[in-house]
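testing teh design pipeline on a random one, pls ignore if ur not involved
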């Protein structure tokens, strides 16, 4: 029986016509080795950013539904061009949009979640001997509206298709050789990991290591789908992500930096039961993902509450927080985009005070102030000044000898 492979090529791998041709060759060679192939592609290069800039030139706060209609066009360009390139090499191929792939999603625009995949059409095309080129990042809601899955969401499309089609593995092709101990574009000394567990890579991804979309890792772990991250520009082996990786016991596996966040603060909120509940349930209802919450301890009848959100959700979060502040009689709402979250990740962090002390000491030696700290069993995160975040990342990577 033939086995099926799902491959995903990110925007950096299909950024030009030349790159699309090279990717087409790679796919055709793989097909010749006997596997059936479904390929998920992102929009070319910086297309998604350019489309967002176009929308903002018309409306600073464009409606989410129309944003999805606009953003989904990026992937439609790349699937058709890639299919043409493969067709020109004499192979049977078909491009399919998210809706044509049967990718059904929730109706939350700009960050929809996949509800299920009706694989009939893809199965039919594969049975006809075709290579299937699927648009990543997009799906269709119950009412037939086009939806998108959030920035970087093509990884999630790929894993979801791999699971639904019972693929042997899901291969994520990008512009670096695999998953590293830190972003190799920021930290020159970062080292490539030959394998890593779902849990550790999920933590790195959730904390800002842009190499994989967190939901893709979550889904891969849930269904035990082996994930491989490889470079589309060369033949190096990449990083394998699976459950049973036997890894050398280390305190810290990697460092992640998230520069895509902002801090929102509400000042002089009444010190009463139910206030935090009211604020965060309002944000939850708006599908805003909230992180790093702090409430200061005051000796008066009012408190200040701060939290961080993703910059993509900042405008909506500020609007909801202002509404809350007005209702409860808080003094004012402020936000700050000049922050970044730097995190150390590793399963050895739990119950080891040394990691925290080395982390804080390194920041202290650089004279960098810590605004907020948050911890879990496998990570420690600090909110710091964005301007100095990359420098701090390099120093922390060195301090832990990664
Ligand atoms: P694609 O277009 O293929 O989706 P992305 O830009 O989304 O590519 O992801 C790849 C980038 O992720 C790399 O170029 C790298 O700068 C960044 N990155 C951040 N953290 C890491 C890490 N720990 N390991 C590898 N790459 C990382
Ligand atoms: N094109 C989308 C983005 O830039 C999705 C992706 O690349 O995964 O976020
Ligand atoms: Mg990506």
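output:
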């Amino acid at each position: 029986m033939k086995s099926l492979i799902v491959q995903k090529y990110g925007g950096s791998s299909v950024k030009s016509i030349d790159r699309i041709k090279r990717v087409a060759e790679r796919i055709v060679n793989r097909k010749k080795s006997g596997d059936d192939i479904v390929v998920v592609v992102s929009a070319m290069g910086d297309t998604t950013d350019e489309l967002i800039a176009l929308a903002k030139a018309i409306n600073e706060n464009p409606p989410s539904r129309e944003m999805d209609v606009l953003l989904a066009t990026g992937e439609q360009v790349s699937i058709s061009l890639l299919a043409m390139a493969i067709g020109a090499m004499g192979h049977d191929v078909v491009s399919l949009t998210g809706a044509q792939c049967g990718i059904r999603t929730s109706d939350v625009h700009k960050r929809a979640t996949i509800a299920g995949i009706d694989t009939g059409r893809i199965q039919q095309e594969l049975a006809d001997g075709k290579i299937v080129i699927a648009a990543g990042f997009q799906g269709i809601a119950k009412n037939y509206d086009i939806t998108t899955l959030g920035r970087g969401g093509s990884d999630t499309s790929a894993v979801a298709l791999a699971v639904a089609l019972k693929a042997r593995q899901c291969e994520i092709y990008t512009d670096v050789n695999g998953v590293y101990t830190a972003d190799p574009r920021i930290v020159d000394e970062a080292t490539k990991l030959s394998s890593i567990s779902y849990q550790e890579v999920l933590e790195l991804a959730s904390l800002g290591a842009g190499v994989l979309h967190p939901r893709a890792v979550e889904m891969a772990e849930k269904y035990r789908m082996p994930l491989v991250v490889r470079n589309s520009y060369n033949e190096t082996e990449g990083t394998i992500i699976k459950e049973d990786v036997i890894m050398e016991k280390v305190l810290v596996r990697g460092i992640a930096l998230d520069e895509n966040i902002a801090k929102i603060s509400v000042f002089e909120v009444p010190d009463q039961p139910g206030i935090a509940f009211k604020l965060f349930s309002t944000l939850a209802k708006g599908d805003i993902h909230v992180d790093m919450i702090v409430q200061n301890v005051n000796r008066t009848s009012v408190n200040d509450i701060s939290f961080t959100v993703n910059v993509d959700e900042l405008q909506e979060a500020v609007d909801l927080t202002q509404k809350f502040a007005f209702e409860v009689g808080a003094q004012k709402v402020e936000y700050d985009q000049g922050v970044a979250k730097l995190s150390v990740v590793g399963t050895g962090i739990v119950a080891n005070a040394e990691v925290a002390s080395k982390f804080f000491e390194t920041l202290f030696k650089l004279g960098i102030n810590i605004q907020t700290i948050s911890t879990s069993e496998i990570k420690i995160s600090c909110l710091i000044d964005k301007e100095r975040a990359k420098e701090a990342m390099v120093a922390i990577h060195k301090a832990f000898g990664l």
